[in-house]
Amino acid sequence: MAEIKRRDFLGMALGGVTAVGAAASLVAMKRTWDPLPSVVSAGFTTVDVSSMKEGDFSSTEWRGKPVYIIRKKADAEFNAARDFKIGDAVFTLGIQICTHLGCIPIFDSEKEDFFCPCHGGRFNIDGINVPGTPPPSPFEIPPFKVDGMKLVLGESGSEYEAMLKA
Ligand code: FES
């Protein structure tokens, strides 16, 4: 009888530890995938990127489309056609819809690339389609304007226009 009680206690203790671990994992996942604070009005989405740290990936929605924003790591290559700076911080963004047949690719933060599970399409961190995979072109970049540490999606600013000319 005493043995059963001890076993029950161990089972409950182990269950409790597992539940706490699972809850901690969910909190960490939520933090990673939380959309950025944003305000939507009249076709514009204003996104605050001030909390983003190097390597952070986040997403928001603009006119019904998923838009990702990545703050690149300091040692990452700067691609003038796909990246922009706010101070020393380098960001890249794009509409996260596969240019093959419209699936939503998944960002892999370890490999720093996007994988489209529909037909095996790949895009690099700058949203450029990887040769030899189905997507025919890079992710589209939404027009945007930089306003302090905020991005206004839907408005064409100097950073966006510089990307188009690069
Ligand atoms: S829809 Fe993405 S690879 Fe086909």
UniProtKB/TrEMBL annotation:
<feature type="domain" description="Rieske">
    <location>
        <begin position="44"/>
        <end position="153"/>
    </location>
</feature>
<dbReference type="InterPro" id="IPR017941">
    <property type="entry name" value="Rieske_2Fe-2S"/>
</dbReference>
<keyword id="KW-0500">Molybdenum</keyword>
<protein>
    <submittedName>
        <fullName>Ubiquinol-cytochrome c reductase iron-sulfur subunit</fullName>
    </submittedName>
</protein>
<keyword id="KW-0479">Metal-binding</keyword>
<dbReference type="Pfam" id="PF00355">
    <property type="entry name" value="Rieske"/>
</dbReference>
<keyword id="KW-0408">Iron</keyword>
<dbReference type="InterPro" id="IPR006311">
    <property type="entry name" value="TAT_signal"/>
</dbReference>
<dbReference type="InterPro" id="IPR005805">
    <property type="entry name" value="Rieske_Fe-S_prot_C"/>
</dbReference>
<keyword id="KW-0411">Iron-sulfur</keyword>
<keyword id="KW-0001">2Fe-2S</keyword>
<dbReference type="InterPro" id="IPR036922">
    <property type="entry name" value="Rieske_2Fe-2S_sf"/>
</dbReference>
<dbReference type="GO" id="GO:0016020">
    <property type="term" value="C:membrane"/>
</dbReference>
<dbReference type="InterPro" id="IPR014349">
    <property type="entry name" value="Rieske_Fe-S_prot"/>
</dbReference>
<dbReference type="InterPro" id="IPR019546">
    <property type="entry name" value="TAT_signal_bac_arc"/>
</dbReference>
<keyword id="KW-1015">Disulfide bond</keyword>
<dbReference type="GO" id="GO:0051537">
    <property type="term" value="F:2 iron, 2 sulfur cluster binding"/>
</dbReference>
<dbReference type="GO" id="GO:0046872">
    <property type="term" value="F:metal ion binding"/>
</dbReference>
